[in-house]
Amino acid sequence: MEIRKNLATLDKYQKKCPYPMNPTRVVVHNTANDAPAINEVKYMLSNNSEVSFHYAVDDLGAVQGIPENRNTWNAGDGNGKGNREGISVEICYSKSGGVRFLKAEQNAAELIASILKRYGWGLDRVTKHQDYSGKYCPHRTLDMGWQRFLDMVESYLTPMTLDTKSKDMRPGELYQVLARTKIQPAVEVVGSDIIQVYPPREDPRGYKIDVTAKKPGFAHITVKAGGVSCQCNFNVEG
């Protein structure tokens, strides 16, 4: 995912990020707007209000407006930990939702996972605006399920794996591929005339994907979840 930088100039520091910061957490927001990330950052930097954030994320990628070693006025808790210790991430397109918002959420989850990895933090460092001021934010992410979003972040921390990379089969045989992931994967099939693939089914260990051999030949499936892709090959013998 692309991360572009449009950083505050020094003359904006007094209003937007006046204090040096040693971050200890991530604070997640929804913009409650329908503008792309670059516009959100440009607007934030163009005004003189004491409202600021580190990143805005949309369906195309992320834009950074404030360095991570400076504070932002994002959490509504004065000089509390949200404002003074949090790396703030705004997820775009939350006003109307839809496909662009879902992709923006996915990109935000990927960005947040990369932040956690860089600082050596666990998932417990991912917090929400609501935790600091009581404001119902990130509003659409909360409506859709906070744990769902945390699971999305975790999927980038723990890459998906399949229980097998190849399988020999005979026509009429059924095989179950186990995808070890916490979010529902998407499956692409090459060789649909050779194998029949059914939608993933939730399993305590992840998701099971039923595959039935139809006729002799070679085929494969590509399983995608949380930005990770894995392939399983099938050789259907005559």
Topology:
Blueprint: E1 2-5, H1 13-16, E2 25-30, H2 37-46, E3 55-57, E4 61-64, H3 81-85, E5 86-91, H4 99-119, E6 126-128, H5 130-133, H6 139-144, H7 146-157, E7 161-162, E8 166-169, E9 174-180, E10 186-190, E11 195-197, E12 201-203, E13 206-213, E14 217-225, E15 228-236
Helix pairs in contact: 4-7
Descriptive key words:
six-stranded mixed beta sheet; 238 residues; 7 helices; five-stranded antiparallel beta sheet; elongated; 26% helix; single chain
Précis, in short:
By secondary structure, the chain is of the alpha/beta class.
Description:
The chain is α/β, with parallel strands linked by helices. The protein is 26% helix and 32% strand. It is built from seven helices and 15 strands. Strands 1-4-3-5-2-6 form a six-stranded mixed sheet. Strands 7, 9, 11, 12 and 13 form a five-stranded antiparallel sheet that branches. The longest helix has 21 residues, at 99-119. It starts with a strand and ends with a strand. The mean pLDDT is 96.
Task: Trace the largest sheet across and list its strands.
Answer: 1-4-3-5-2-6
Q: State the helix count.
A: 7
Distance between the termini: 43 Å
Helix fraction bin: 25-40%
Reading the helices and strands in chain order gives: EHEHEEHEHEHHHEEEEEEEEE
Q: On the 0-100 scale, what is the average pLDDT?
A: 96
What portion of the residues fall into strands of 2 or more residues? 25-35%
Radius of gyration: 22 Å
> What is the tally of beta strands?
15
Globular, elongated, flat, extended or rod-shaped: what is the shape?
Answer: elongated
